[in-house]
Amino acid sequence: MLKAILLGNGAREGVLEGVAALRPVIEQFVEVVAADFNNIVDLTNVDADIAIVFGGDGSILRSVHQMCENQLPILAINLGTLGFLSSVDPAGVGPFLESDAFRNMATREQILLNCSVWRRKEIGVEPFDFRTVSPRLSSRALPSGWQSGMSDRYCYGNHLVVNEVALRGVAPFSILKIDLAIDGELVTTFRGDGLIVSTPVGSTGHSLSAGGPILRNSLDSVVISPLAPLTLNFRPVVDSASRVYEMQARTGEVFLVVDGESRQKLMSDDLVVIRRAPFPFKMISVPENKYYRNLQRKLSWGVDTITRHNTRK
What we know:
The protein has two domains: 2-110 and 281-312, Rossmann fold, CATH 3.40.50.10330; 113-276, Tumour Suppressor Smad4 (Sandwich), CATH 2.60.200.30. 19% of the residues lie in helices and 34% in strands. The chain is built from eight helices and 18 strands. The chain has helices spanning 15-26, 57-67, 93-97, 100-104, 135-138, 206-209, 291-299, 305-312, and strands at 2-8, 30-36, 50-54, 74-77, 107-110, 113-120, 153-161, 164-169, 176-182, 185-192, 194-198, 221-227, 237-240, 245-249, 254-258, 261-266, 271-276, 281-284. The strands form four sheets. The protein has a six-stranded antiparallel β-sheet, with no helix packed on it. The protein has a six-stranded antiparallel β-sheet with strand order 13-12-11-8-15-16, with no helix packed on it. A four-stranded parallel β-sheet has the order 2-1-3-4. It starts with a strand and ends with a helix. Mean pLDDT is 84; it is low at 127-149.
């Protein structure tokens, strides 16, 4: 039997009840070797074959961060609202686990990003050796020979990115000035409320609300989306995930926001470096889980919203 870990947000309504109802079914087909519904267990060395995640896209995101470089194929059980990534509904768990689709277990890989912050060296401040945190993240943090001026900086933070990286201002809000470079080439100095660099998975989140395009999850790309640009000539840009992206805020107080959570307050000269992480995350493919069907249902494509509203009354 395959070894599985059970994950989810136990504070979310219905998750623990869903686990209690479905665990006997699950244990008919896999061996459960660990379970964590408080996001506190170190999973980087857990001996398992798959991760079964209870919840929606937010629970999947938490699980990917928790596993870090030890990315197990995820089977997501959707509880509550429809998620873009959620694989199977509770009623379909048993039939899927006993199906040929599970026994053959095809997976789809989706890119992760690595976001590091580089600060100029100061007297009495030792460089942050993030190899002690995640050797595989550090191994490709900076390509050889890139950014000749990096010798005077040290790594001040290192983050795994599932959805997006955003540079945002703080209250009282003011126009930010952000230099954007790709592979060491200055692209533009952006002026506005902020910039978002998003993965294909994250393209249906904050980036979409800012006017960015939807990228299919399997694409090897990122999208750069402006937040309330001061001029109308800056539009979302799609480029390769294999490139190195730099953002450097020049004015105002700025926060680095990773996957919707504020991670660091930046100084005006801090350099944010974004590149592909050296490992992807993996979702177990469920034949009934169709990409465009999910988009149709989640985004109400082809639905007359006025008619739907009147029908509900």
